[in-house]
Amino acid sequence: MLVVDDLLAIGCTIEAITILIRYLGGDVAHIALIINLPDIGGAERLKILGLDVYCMCEFTSL
Fold first, then answer.
1. Tens-digit pLDDT profile for residues 51-62
2. What span, in angstroms and rounded, lies between the C-alpha atoms of 43 and 54?
3. Cβ contacts of residue 12 below 8 Å, gap of 6+?
4. Among 5, 23, 28, 38, which residue is least crowded by beta carbons within 10 Å?
């Protein structure tokens, strides 16, 4: 299953959705995002759950 969200910061929302879907018997494998904030580390948090993370753009700190 693919989950789509607009912004990934710390990853709590996507993590909670993934846990809920898996609890209900679903299988989440991919996350698609419009914006990722990689300096905050949300994508790494989701990769620990075994998710493939795809984003359209990233904004890093200067």
1. 999 999 999 986
2. 9
3. none
4. 23
Tally the C-alpha atoms within 13 A of residue 19's C-alpha that lie toward its C-beta.
Answer: 9
Q: What pLDDT does residue 62 have?
A: 64
Question: Do 15 and 49 form a contact (C-beta atoms < 8 A)?
Answer: yes
- How much is the pLDDT for 22? 97
Q: Which amino acid is located at 58 in the chain?
A: E
SS (H, E, C) the chain: CEEEEEEECCCHHHHHHHHHHHHCCCCCCEEEEEEECHHHCHHHHHHHCCCEEEEEEECCCC
Instruction: Report the pLDDT value the prediction gives residue 61, as an integer from 0 to 100.
Output: 81
